[in-house]
Amino acid sequence: MTGVNSFQVSGYGPERAGWTRLFARDSMARRLDWPILLAALALSLIGSVLVFSATRNRTEINQGDPYYFLLRHLLNTGIGLALMVGTVWLGHRTLRTAVPILYGASVFLILMVLTPLGSTVNGAHSWIVIGGGFSLQPSEFVKVTIILGMAMLLAARVDAGDKQHPDHRTVLQALGLAAVPMLIVLLMPDLGSVMVMVVIVLGVLLASGASNRWIFGLIGAGTAGALAVWQLGVLDEYQINRFAAFANPELDPAGVGYNTNQARIAIGSGGLTGSGLFQGSQTTGQFVPEQQTDFVFTVAGEELGFVGGGLIIVLLGVVLWRACRIARETTDLYGTIVAAGIVAWFAFQAFENIGMTLGIMPVTGLPLPFVSYGGSSMFAVWVAVGLLQSIRVQRPLSA
């Protein structure tokens, strides 16, 4: 006997059988995408070292314990791995049926941010303080639910065989689903997260096979919307200053341009092999603000040099390469769209984070996936890895 029946005859229930199949050699280990798993884990572990270097001497934030942020980063990584395993066990197809619940929960959480429960961190009113030093950034999880929700709508009739491509009505419904949380996040305001969501929407539509007119139309609408946001004063002053500093790096080097100037000094001083782990003068001297989160790449650039920074980029490239392969090889449009949305998310967010430390992108406060300190971001990216693994595991063996 094989499959579930053999487990049941042996005295195992369906639930025990499910967990056994999850770790069974033929069904799980052989199908897992090990390169993406190992690359993501390596990034998280490298991030723990960089976070430790950036915070071990920061007594004003580490509560007098040099290992405070290191241990929490490792804990976040462990929880993220558990969420990945849970996501694989449930399966992306099972989660497809739960999309309305997940979507409603994520919208509810970001609405809570706009109430007195919300908290402001670094100018962005996008956090919910839970207590005990823990906080939650719901916009990170919205990225996941936008991908799942749009994929569910766009793939429904195609996977059922009714249509070859999503029709205009379906595309409008999917855009409406994404627009609601994006507008709420914009009101926080959290412009960086909105930028990521816009790229996710474009990536999802491209993967769905929707008409190119929608892509070009959205790009035009996005450009017009960005100009309107700027002219109508929706952005806070600190966000306007960040864009001004990006346009003119010499603008107020002791004020709005301080972060990017110090970041470039740190990376530039690293040279080829860096100054040595825990030996960076910019990092040790605490000259780069928010170095454990937004500017964690500067630690790698200064202390590990071009080699260390290049290793991080290569590992991110492995994650993106394998995710693209999963998107290409899956047999259903739903899986393709989910994987493509994750690729768009990871690629843009990594480019934006590293780009802002190099001065080629504006400062938006986006974390570097898997590397930056932050529980919400770590949990969300590992759930995304779980979705990718689920798509890989549940495809036919011949695919």
How would you describe the overall organization of this protein?
Strands 1-2-3 form a 3-stranded antiparallel beta sheet, with helices on one face. The chain has 18 helices and 3 strands. A hairpin with a 2-residue loop joins strand 1 (118-121) and strand 2. It is mainly alpha-helical and 399 residues long.
Brief description of this entry?
The protein is mainly alpha-helical and 399 residues long. It contains 18 helices and three strands.
User: What would you report as the Rg, rounded to the nearest angstrom?
Assistant: 22 Å
Report the order of strands and helices: HHHHHHHEEEHHHHHHHHHHH
Shape: globular
Which sheet architecture does the biggest sheet show? 3 strands, antiparallel
**Intertermini distance:** 25 Å
Number of strands: 3
Secondary structure: helix percent: 55-70%
Q: Any chance you could write out the topology, listing elements then pairs?
A:
Layout: H1 3-9, H2 14-23, H3 25-29, H4 34-55, H5 68-90, H6 92-97, H7 99-113, E1 118-121, E2 124-131, E3 134-136, H8 139-159, H9 168-187, H10 191-208, H11 212-232, H12 237-247, H13 258-270, H14 281-284, H15 296-303, H16 305-329, H17 333-358, H18 375-393
Antiparallel strand pairs: 1-2, 2-3
Helix pairs in contact: 1-2, 4-5, 4-15, 4-16, 5-18, 7-8, 7-9, 8-9, 8-10, 8-17, 8-18, 9-10, 10-11, 10-17, 13-15, 15-16, 16-17, 17-18
